[in-house]
Known about the structure:
Helix content is 70%, strand content 0%. By secondary structure, the chain is an all-alpha fold. It is globular, with a radius of gyration of 18 Å.
Amino acid sequence: MKQAASEYSGDQRVQEAMSPSEVTIRIARHVASVGFSRADLAGLRRMDPEYPNAAAFWRLTAEYDVLRGEDSECRWGLICYGIALMTKTARGDPLDRSAHVPGMPVGCALFTGGDPNGGTAFYRDLRLNQLLTAHGSAQRTQIARMLRVMSTVEQRFDWRQMSQFILSDGDIGERVRRTIARDYYRAEFRRKSFRTSA
């Protein structure tokens, strides 16, 4: 019994050493892995992130020990929901299926919508403003809508940044909002500059 307790404590220390962003990436890899069932993926996609009830959600959050109350459940519910929506269903290389694309800024992904040569912004700046100015449950509602829209074009992005946006309040949350806006309008500027020079 003591042996099992000490092993559990060691696992818990490893989990505690990981940042929430690292946990998010682990979850994205797990959901995209060959061993993750289609039924669990479907359950995460169907659940209401404000009231997460999928068995896969409870398993994932138990494995990484991230839940700290009702507000935490809603935030991690949104992360698991979004990752599931943006994970490609087709079998193949788990890295290619994953919702997480390292180095793809959220703001840039919102602007291009998977089409770097398109004429206009995929996610309109009015929607972007609503997304970035909302707080609390209204913010989570806006994020859930955005995730559904992005999943329709299979546009994925860096989930480290998205998890910070979902989980952070105060100064950190404000920095993430500004970064998303900056990356969006940089993508707009690059597209306009390219079209002018062409």
